[in-house]
Amino acid sequence: MPGQVLKVMSYNIQVGISTRQPHHYLTHSWKHVLPHSQRLTNLDRVACLLRDVDLVGLQEVDAGSLRSNYINLAEYLALKGGFPYWYHQVNRSIGRFAKHSNGLLSRFHPAEVSDIALPGLIPGRNAIMARYGTSQEPLAVFMLHLALGRRARMRQLAMISERVNDFKHVILMGDMNCRPGSPEMNLLFKLTRLREPLEETLTFPSWRPQHHIDHILVTPELEVQKVYAMHHAYSDHLPIVMELVLPESIQLSRLAA
Question: Where does the pLDDT of residue 197 fall: very low under 50, low under 70, confident under 90, or very high at 90 and above?
Fold first, then answer.
């Protein structure tokens, strides 16, 4: 019998800001610090993309501050997308004005979810680790948003590699801020069993994708069927999607044990 099929997405949602042209970084910059009426409308469009996805890693969400009208955006997308399990991780809190966060949405019940502090010159970068399945045959899912500087990314990937190597079956995804073939990605592939993508999936900028900086990587036992970007300019990144088949030994449950 074939194993369980899983559809996974990684998406940097830029705090619900739709960016369609380079000049929007300037003209829409106020939306990063102040509430605006179209944010939830745009997030409703994002939620429509999530409805047939099993597991979503979100970057650049807000955990509920002035700019998001005190709405936790991970929770909002979970409710709108019909996800029974969600988790948010606050990386940097700027008082009542912003709570920079990562998020994880899941249709399957995780056995464990934990935060992993990542090294960097500016503290606050973290990764999310979720464990699914049984303790004897787990699936580990890592979600992260790496630093802008190469030196920090090298340190962050060296550290996360140690945690990845604790598991046989791994999905690692997120906004890595670096391309396949970069020194930091080559380091990741050298230190772990994660597989290098067979071809580039361009995700940034959303209006004219030229860079493959959003990634979903897996260990060899996970059978990749398809990888693609969804072309919707609801952020300055495109969502990247992977459809894969799990080994028969891994069974994900939609109910708490």
Answer: confident
